[in-house]
Write a sequence for this structure.
């Protein structure tokens, strides 16, 4: 089946620094990718929809200047957490949307665990 | 707007007993419905999905779910629980007015007692 990778799988950074997380669709092209955030013992919350070649669409309450999304190619979307603070520590999961044979499927990455000290 | 409600944040069953995890959705027709499982410190694994074909959907690991439009439900069942089924389960909906994005329920943690 289709595979989506995330890099890094985990990252620890100091407060105030920026962290970039990559989401790649390894064997298919994805014009649309999604970014989710999951706090401990909670559900996945959609942060934004990443569209190749255009600006991302952010969900209500998500700061677009803090969570920068770039979808520069059909296989790569990046999420940059700018000036990270401890409250940004979370599990970040991306997904890539694929349409094949009239069927639409989302494939999820393995997640990136971010810890801000 | 689409939404998903999972009834019961925790469910505990004995090994070998029936597993029933409840999910109700709100969406315009036709929704796509999913069940995912998440083991501790891991990503999501798709158990099964409903895409307007058969209303009874069979998934991996012996799980199945039935789409009931009249009840707006998509409950997940497994006839006999195994210790390895202990995990967090998420019901999710996409499609309709929500487009491609997936909205997740709050999750249900399944405990399996020996």
């Amino acid at each position: 089946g289709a595979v989506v990778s995330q890099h890094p799988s985990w990252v620890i950074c100091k407060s105030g620094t920026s962290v970039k997380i990559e989401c790649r669709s390894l064997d298919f092209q994805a014009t649309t990718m999604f970014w989710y955030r999951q706090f401990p013992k909670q559900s996945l919350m959609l942060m934004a929809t990443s569209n190749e070649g255009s600006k991302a669409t952010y969900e209500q309450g998500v700061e677009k200047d803090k969570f920068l999304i770039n979808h520069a190619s059909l296989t790569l979307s990046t999420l940059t957490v700018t000036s990270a603070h401890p409250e940004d520590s979370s599990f970040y999961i991306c997904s890539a949307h694929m349409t094949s044979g009239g069927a639409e499927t989302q494939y999820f990455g393995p997640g990136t665990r971010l810890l801000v000290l | 707007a689409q939404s998903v409600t999972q009834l019961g944040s925790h469910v505990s069953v004995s090994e070998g007993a029936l597993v029933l995890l409840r999910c109700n959705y709100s969406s315009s027709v036709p929704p796509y419905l999913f069940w995912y499982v998440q083991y501790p410190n891991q990503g999501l694994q798709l158990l099964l999905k409903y895409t307007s074909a058969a209303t009874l959907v069979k998934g991996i690991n012996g799980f199945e779910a039935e789409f009931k439009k009249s009840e707006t439900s998509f409950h997940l069942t497994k006839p006999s629980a195994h210790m390895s089924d202990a995990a967090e389960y998420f019901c999710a909906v996409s499609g309709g007015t929500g487009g491609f994005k997936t909205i997740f329920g709050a999750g249900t943690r399944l405990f399996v007692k020996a």
Observations:
- The mean pLDDT of chain B is 91.
- Chain B is about 0% helix and 55% strand.
